[in-house]
Write a structure and sequence with these properties.
By secondary structure, this protein is α+β, with helices and mostly antiparallel strands. Helices cover 22% and strands 26% of the residues.
């Protein structure tokens, strides 16, 4: 077997052994051509033909050399894959060769020949490409708004037949800061850095890796006249934000055949810039006030008895819950049926109704409807976990097999090109649920086919919302969607359509469209709530998550939260948990969650009493009780503030530059934010800190715990004992806002 995929697996940050690199080679430079081969292949050669548009063709023979096999960002020869992948690596090896410097003005054809130990030869089919070069093209950028493109900076990457990318520059003045770009973990001000806009599942350490589930090609430029921009494309965009030239923002974007790249330029205050962007992207729909209450979940709450036991424990400890999220509820196969439920397979893939199921008394979920009713009687909303895939490993059977066959028959899947021509269903190339089928939820018909299977959960069981996890599984610019467009244009839009589909289901049943997603792109603002994704229980992750919330808010995301003190690995220290829970009292979505730990002891649940018991620190439980009670009291303020946010475009949780864009001190201050109109929040983000600097912008401020009035326009050192998070109210805050904190300090 010889395998060559010109575009590779589609991993946006890694080059696979068997691909062409770069996928669009540049004239005057060399390219790598690679294959993966069976262990029995002892030599590999490549024939590279050059066919100029004018002139005679030539041919060159290349000898490939053995290399470490890389696939989907992992090194398998001497790398860090699991044992199963390591076994695969021993059976398949990597081979690569470098081309001579390439020419423009023609096309290259190449194929590979492998020789086996027994002398047999094996050849691949022919592949083609044209080398591209950068050319000036002043008409390749379409500016909407007051023009700012630097004259002479517009260039296109063209191969003689089509454009591949457009590059241009915008001015960046001294003292200007650049912020936004969707959810960004490493920093709020991105000036001096480079980044891109590609939806990607970065499992943990997002701040260190500088990758994100929720990018947007949108930014504020603050500190001068005040402006911003959005690159109107769902294709990949790269940004050099003064890293190469301190006086320029350089933007490079993939484009379709010969279309101009549209760039929207906005002028005004940060709120005005955001509002102009949301005119294009769409605004959040107001969600009911109960979303501001505490959300609780744990991956090991995987039976009806355990869910109710956990809710009883919350009540016992005086910690009111507004929502419970059940992740491990389903059969882990269809993701539509409760585990242990008995039912007849619908061979045509038709949806089931509640009456189709029998729930054994000894099963994991003996009566989901009664459980939901009991939760509602306790004023607790129920959300169920989802993944937008048809799981194909292990080999599907029963209803999953019927659903997969129906999905193919009904033509509701994303597809990929077949080597010999035509297309076939795309098989997930990511590391989570590998080889799964993926419904095209960007298509209304396919989305309805998918969500109808979940309708009984909403209309009959009474589910209130869905945790729309994942959404980053579409890898490959060559994928084919049902509207005929390809992956380079559509992959980033999938996580926008995914929660929309579930929101539409909820609306059709008369419910609020409450979804809880981690992935998204431009347009996600209109679809439910979001959390910051998977992260360890570390102080670094705490700091990164606060950055993520503030940059998401600056990009128009209203309902945002994170896994308090992280969800993965060993439990957080008592101090980290307390500080994280205090901060989360003042973010839009307050929720804790824990990763599956195979029910091993001791428990890794992130419930306050488990942290208190395991860390031997009763302060955890006492302070959790106190701050959750404060959160309950804040719900009307948050509900009112969210309504104002949607009406005015001023973010609910927002960086200080929104209110004080001309104040340079907001960029050097510690991480702080405004929550609603009146509250300034300064979380404790350093281990062991009991005092710290807080920057109070211009105006009068009131310490909500002590009532002390302080003049702004300066940094002040404040006490921050473990039982208190620094919070200040504007001097003219309504008395009822200050009353929320009375007797709570």
């Amino acid at each position: 077997m010889l395998r060559h995929r010109p575009e590779g697996s589609g991993h946006p940050y890694s080059v696979d052994t068997e691909q062409r690199s770069p996928a669009t080679p540049l004239a005057g430079e060399r390219a790598l051509l690679g294959v993966r081969a069976d262990a029995g292949v002892v030599t590999v050669a490549a024939t590279l033909q050059w066919h100029p548009d004018d002139g005679a063709s030539t041919s060159t023979e290349l000898t490939l050399e053995r290399v470490a096999t890389t696939s989907r960002g992992k090194v398998t020869d001497g790398g860090h894959l699991a044992s199963a992948a390591a076994r695969l690596a021993r059976a398949a090896g990597g081979w690569q060769a470098e081309t001579p410097p390439l020419q423009s003005g023609g096309r290259y054809r190449y194929r590979f020949t492998g020789t086996h130990e027994d002398g047999r030869e094996e050849r691949t089919r022919w592949f083609e490409f044209r080398a591209a070069r950068w050319e000036s093209a002043s008409d390749a950028v379409d500016e909407i708004g007051i023009g700012r493109v630097v004259p002479g900076s517009v260039r296109v990457l063209r191969d003689g037949a089509r454009n591949h990318r457009v590059r241009f520059a915008l001015p960046l003045a001294p003292g200007e800061h650049v912020a936004g770009f969707g959810e960004r973990y490493d920093a709020i001000d991105q000036r001096g850095t480079t980044l891109d806009s590609m939806v990607f599942e970065q499992y943990k350490s997002q701040g260190a890796e500088r990758k994100t589930y929720l990018p947007m090609p949108f930014a504020h430029v603050i500190g001068g006249a005040g402006w911003g921009f959005h690159v109107d494309t769902s294709r990949r965009v790269w940004f050099d934000l003064g890293a190469s030239n301190a006086e320029e923002i350089v933007i490079e974007a993939e484009v379709g055949d010969d279309e101009a790249l549209r760039v929207r330029l906005f002028d005004g205050t940060p709120t005005e810039v955001l509002g102009a962007f949301l005119d294009v992207a769409g605004r959040a729909q107001e969600l009911p006030g109960w979303v501001f209450r505490l959300w609780a979940s744990g991956n090991e709450w995987n039976t009806q008895a355990e869910v109710m036991r956990q809710m009883d424990l919350h009540a016992l400890h005086g910690i009111p819950v507004g929502s419970v999220v059940i992740e491990a509820w389903s059969d882990e196969s269809t993701f539509t049926a409760f585990r242990d439920a008995e039912y007849e397979v619908h061979s045509d893939g038709a949806p089931h109704r509640l009456a189709d199921f029998t729930f054994p008394a000894e099963g994991a979920w003996p009566d989901p409807k009664a459980m939901t009713d009991e939760l509602h009687a306790r004023d607790i909303k129920l959300h169920l976990w989802q993944i937008p895939l048809l799981k194909m490993r292990p080999h599907p059977h029963g209803q999953l097999k019927a659903d997969a066959e129906a999905a193919i028959r009904e033509d509701v899947l994303i597809r990929e090109p077949k080597p010999g021509g035509g297309t076939r269903p795309y098989r997930n190339r990511g590391w989570w649920f590998p080889l799964a089928l993926m419904p095209d939820l960007t298509d209304e018909r396919a989305a309805a086919w998918w969500t109808e299977k979940r309708r009984y959960l909403v209309e009959e069981v009474g589910v209130d919302g869905f945790k729309t996890d994942g959404g980053e599984h579409a890898w490959g610019r060559e994928l084919v969607y049902l509207d005929g467009r390809r992956g380079d244009e559509k992959n980033n839009t999938f996580p926008v359509a995914y929660p929309k589909a579930y929101g539409d289901l909820l609306r059709s049943a008369g419910k609020a469209p409450v979804t809880f997603s981690r992935a998204g792109f431009t347009g996600s603002q209109a679809h439910g709530a979001f959390w910051a994704g998977d992260e360890n229980s570390t102080w670094d992750a705490f700091r990164w998550s606060m950055n993520a919330g503030l940059t998401a808010a600056a990009s128009g995301i209203v309902y945002w939260g994170w896994d308090i003190a992280g969800f993965s690995g060993e439990i957080p220290s008592a101090e980290l948990y307390i500080r994280a829970l205090q901060a989360s009292t003042f973010v839009p979505i307050m929720q804790y969650h824990s990763e599956f730990n195979h029910h091993r002891a001791p428990s890794r649940d992130r419930t306050p009493w488990n942290i208190a018991e395991r860390r031997g620190d009763e302060r955890v439980l006492d302070l959790s009780r106190r701050f959750v009670a404060l959160r309950e009291a804040l719900v009307p303020y948050l509900e009112r503030s969210a309504r104002e946010t949607i009406a005015t475009d001023r973010p609910l949780m927002r960086p200080l530059f929104f209110d004080w864009p001309a104040d340079p001190a907001v960029w050097t201050a510690p991480t702080q934010w405004m929550l609603g109109a009146d509250l300034l929040v300064a979380p404790v983000l350093e281990e062991g800190a009991t005092r710290g600097l807080v920057y109070l912008p211009e105006g009068e401020w009131i310490d909500v715990w002590t009532g002390e009035r302080l003049a702004g326009g300066r940094s002040v050192e404040v006490d921050a004992p473990i039982e208190r998070i620094p919070v200040f109210a504007r001097g003219d805050a309504a008395p009822e806002v200050l009353a929320l904190f009375t007797d709570r300090g």
